[in-house]
Amino acid sequence: MKADFVIGIDPDTERNGYAMVDTATRKVNIATAKLPVLLELVDIIQSTALATDKHLKVYVEAGWVNHPNWHLGFRDSKQMAAAKGKALGRNHQRGMDIVELLQYKGIDVTPVAPLKKVWRGKDRKITQEELAAIVGQELPRTNQEGRDAALLAWVMAGLPIRLSTKS
Questions:
Q1: Are the C-beta atoms of residues 163 and 129 closer than 8 Å to each other?
Q2: Is 6:57 a contact under the CB 8 Å cutoff?
Q3: N or C: which terminus of the chain has fewer CB atoms within 10 Å of its end residue's CB?
Q4: What CATH number has the domain spanning 5-156?
Q5: What is the strand order of the sheet 16-22 is part of?
Q6: Helix H or strand E encompassing 6
Q7: Nearest Cα to 110, choosing from 66, 53, 152, 54?
């Protein structure tokens, strides 16, 4: 079933990236929210979708489905390595909790592996300018979690990514 509304979520322990794409208008809304607010936002969109006989689909970036990767830098101490591992584990658990809570509420949710990092930003993440070019609209200032969520929603909605090859 094709979704009328697609939500992308980039989980984080503090503020989760959230983006919704209306597939008919291709309008994108981006925000970051703490877990309780995020769940309320999804509930509101689900209620709106049900009331108008439309379908909502939620995708959660699921870093935990990747093969294990090593985040230890050459100069990292044992304490730094432990802190990185703890932060990564907390982030993964937050994503798993979001998926479980949305499933419990009967919302159509799918965990998906993170998209490849092929962009011009730091660590090859997508920049504000690249995202605005893709979605074809002026975007408010966003952080990395919001941009990652928007890119996830856009891709999972099956919308095209067209960028100029000019620098």
A1: no
A2: yes
A3: C
A4: 3.30.420
A5: 27-33, 16-22, 5-10, 56-61, 109-112
A6: strand 5-10
A7: 152
Distance between CA atoms of residues 70 and 59, nearest Å: 25
Question: Does the pLDDT at position 165 exceed 50?
Answer: no
Other CB atoms within a 10 A radius of the CB of residue 163 amount to 9
Residue 154 tokens read as 């856009």
Q: Is 115 exposed, middle or buried (0-12, 13-18, 19+ CB in 10 A)?
A: middle
Q: For 91-150, how does the pLDDT look when each residue is reduced to its tens digit (9 = 90+)?
A: 888 889 999 999 999 999 999 988 777 777 777 788 888 888 888 888 888 888 998 899
Query: What is the token pair recorded at 6?
Result: 């697609």
Which residue, 27, 42, 65, is CA-closest to 150? 27
Q: Hey, what are 8's tokens?
A: 């992308």
Secondary structure element (H or E) that encloses residue 158, with its range: none
Residue-wise over 52-90: b if at least 16 C-beta within 10 A, else e? eeeebbbbbbbbbeeeeeeeeeeeeeeeeeeeeeeeeee
